Amino acid sequence: MKKTGLIIMGLAAVMGIGSAAGVCAGTKKIIRFDEGKRVEIDVENGVAGATDAAGTEGADNTEIALENGTEDSAQEDTADSLELGKFWGPVMEKRDGGFSIDSKVPEGYQGEIVIHIDPDNTMILDSVTGFPADESQIAANQTVYVYTSPAMALSLPPQTTAELVLVNIPQDKGAPLYVNASGALEADGAGGYVLKTNGGEEIKVPANCPITPHLTRQMVYLESIEKGSKCLVWLDASGLAEKIVLFNK
C-alpha cells in the first residue's frame, strides 16, 4: 500500500462542526501545504488540485491510497509517518479558543492563519525550559512557533488546531524543534547518532546528549526513541542536539 502521508478525515472532525460549515459543505477532503502550495484532495471523488500562494490553481498528481476503502485503515497506517504542520510568526490577535498569527514560514504558508487551542490536547510550552507555560503568554506581537495536525480547514484565513505552541522565543537563538521520529536513532559512525524525522531532518545527536521525559519521572535514554516518538530538540550553534525532551505516546 502506498502511503500519502496525510490524515484523511472530514473537516468537521478536524475543526469542530461549526468551524467548517459553509467552507466545504461537509465534503471529506485532505488539506495540506506542500512546497508553498496548498493541496486539496476531494476523497469522495478522487480529485486533487494545488493552489499556490497567489491562488493559482494547477493539476496535482497526488494519489489517494485507501485500503479497503476505509478512512480508519488509512489513518492507522500513516499515524507514525505523518509530518506535523509548522508555522511561526507574530501573534496578530487573541480569539475565543485560540489566536491568529502572521505566518512567516519562508518555504511554506505565509500570511494570516487561525490557530485553535484544544484545552485537552494542545500543549503550551516555554521554548527555553520546555516546561508548561500559561496561555496568557500568547500575546499580540509576541512571536510563537506552532506545530499542528497535518490537516487544515479550507477557509480564508485557513484554520488548524495546535498540537504544540512554543512561547518565550529567544531572539538570539530561536526555538527548539518539535519532531516526529521516523525510527530509532542510527549510529553515525563517529560514536554518536542521527535522529531522522518525518519532516526529512537528520539531526546529529552526541552520545552524551541529555534526554529527559516530559512531565514524568520515568527513566528514558537515547535508545528510548523509536518510530513515532515525538521529541523537543534544542540545537547548539553547530547544529548538534544539546538537549532532548521525549514525550509519552
Walk me through the structure.
With 249 residues, the chain is mainly beta. The protein contains three helices and 18 strands. The strands form four sheets. A five-stranded antiparallel β-sheet has the order 1-2-3-4-5. It has a five-stranded mixed β-barrel with strand order 6-7-8-11-10. Strands 12-17-18-16 form a four-stranded mixed β-sheet, with no helix packed on it. The N terminus is likely disordered.
Keywords:
249 residues; globular; disordered N terminus; 6% helix; five-stranded mixed beta barrel; five-stranded antiparallel β-sheet
Helix content: under 10%
Total DSSP helices: 3
Structural class by SSE content: mainly beta
Q: Kindly report the spatial arrangement of strands forming the biggest sheet.
A: 1-2-3-4-5
Instruction: List segments where confidence is low: pLDDT < 50 over at least 5 consecutive residues.
Output: 1-30, 42-48, 50-79
Oligomer: single chain
Q: What percentage of the residues does DSSP assign to strands (E)?
A: 35-45%
Mean of pLDDT: 77
Report the C-alpha radius of gyration, rounded: 19 Å
Q: Would you report the number of β strands?
A: 18
Distance between the termini: 25 Å
SSE order: EHHEEEEHEEEEEEEEEEEEE
Q: Give the overall shape.
A: globular
Largest sheet: 5 strands, antiparallel
